What does this fold into?
Amino acid sequence: MSTEPEGPSPAHLTPEEFRALGYRAIDWIADYMATVADRPVLSTVEPGEIRDGLPADPPTEPEPFDDVLADLDRVIMPGITHWQSPGFFGYFPANASGPAILGDLVSSGLGVQGMLWSTSPACTEVEQVMLDWLVRAAGLPDHFLSDGPGGGVIQDSASSASLCALVAARERAGGNELLDRLVAYVSSETHSSLEKGARVAGLRAGHLRVVPTDGEQRMDADELATMVAADQVAGLVPFFVCATAGSTSTTAFDPTEAICDVAEANDLWVHLDAAFAGSATVCPEYRWVIDGVDRVDSYCFNPHKWLLTNFDCSAFWVRDRATLLDALSILPEYLRNEASASGAVVDYRDWHVPMGRRFRSLKLWFVVRHYGIAGLQAHVRRHVAWAEWLADQVRTHPSLELAAPRTLSLVCLRHVDGDDRTRHMVDEVNRSGEAFLTHTVLDGRYVLRVAIGGTATTRSHVEELWDRLRVLADG
It folds into this structure.
């Protein structure tokens, strides 16, 4: 006979209590959004400072919500680098927006675990429609649509997308039986996640080849062909190549068409990584950035970078989903169900590494319906125009030069007097708290990156940054 456990019942919120506290949390977020421009962009806490502000032991008794909110300001906020600040020009943007935040809130409230169609049909089917919407909005090939041979899925990041592409390509090439001989190809400008993905996928050390780039940091397709041929003569099995549309350092664009020529002649899987630049293809005039996408085996871009959909939301498509499912599907008895057995539904747990999955598509649904494609296009076009203006200013300044061609909304520049002067400019801007910049190294030289794309960034913020850079360059 069971007995009632001792102690008080958990302090669950009633719907009315949740409503009252929820209003206060929304007010806190809204106040943050209203004041983020006034805060120093870069956190200045020392290592361990946030930890020292928190108790070592968890509370035994419930604590008032007032204390939690107070500690958000006292403990948490000093350790936040404000990615949503209009002065954030580092890395690439990580767009958040009101509609996306609300979509995430609803998703959290529903608490869905959408591993199978049957565990919440809406979680799966809304995601299918959202990926189809993006296919149409970005002018992608029809074989990526959910009713075609391929289809799309929302991953947490482009890193996970590239890992899934590698695993699917490995399966197509022969799987574990050929693992010791499999060889993949990237360039020196390919995102570092491909190197990590190759390790996770089990490629042997040294079997991720780095193809040389040309003077504009693009993979040299002729060199790729030469390396593939040499590996085949050596008894190895070339099976995968990653083309990049908009590299992290400079937004360089690999010649995807030429890479596909090499791949098709040698049965290589082609993955096209357009994590940042892919968002621009909602504008028809920028679809050149993914020329050749109709020929690749897999493709991804991140709405969470430049399409006002807060992290995490990475759109990933495959030409033929059967290969991906063969690589990732495992069906224990406890997941068997009538809907899955019918073959009439998609179970997205088979499309990526985790079994569990959140209702990520809901925030994308909120965003697209709030802004419309026209609003997303205007968002992208403004940033590109401001970057073009900034690049023009750099070209006419006697002490500065563009370090790489400007294509979309990233401007790479350096001081003509060398690395120390360029580094000083980055450090001084970041120290001011008014803006935040990051750097890269290109051809052995230190380069300042200005990535324009924040939700709250306006032309005036770009102009203010330029005024600061101009003064530092002259000083």
